[in-house]
Amino acid sequence: MKSSVFRQALTGWARPEEESNPEHFRCYRRFTTAVGIALLHSDNESTCVRPSNYLACDLIIDLDRSSSEHLSLLREVTKSTREVLKATNLEEGYPFFTFASMILAQIAKDWTSAEAAATQLILDEKSVRANESLNWMIKDDRFLLGLSNYDQLHSDWISFAHDLINPTAHEDTQLVIDTFKIMEKTSQESQ
Asked: pTM for this one?
């Protein structure tokens, strides 16, 4: 197990587009991410594997957008992993999997599921902040991003949010989009 965790941590920091063979690297990281998620599903804490928001981010970054089968699989993985992490009452990062579900549903153009995930994301974020077992990890007031001290991939999450749309004028979807736009603007102004 230790070598799998070590490999996953090493591959997690690389940018596929900077590798000599980006697709080959993505395939390898898909494997290491799958191992990491399997470890979470086997009662390992994310701090011993890879922070949960990093694993969720890797799923989206390494998505094979040409494969509807891969997209469908990842949609199921994000939902089930959210449930596993939420059930432990130890993982403040489970809302990142809710957000990943929203993003993947939008990629699939499944607006009903994307809307449900947006509503669930707002509830999950609020739930973590209200949970005394989890809220001691809260770093700041930023929506979702403030839930974790593991913040090196926050720019990726903001980038994912930048691509969200709201074709049905769903209130919670728009709230999530607007909140991330504000965070993106604030981030750009502070640079």
From this structure: 0.89
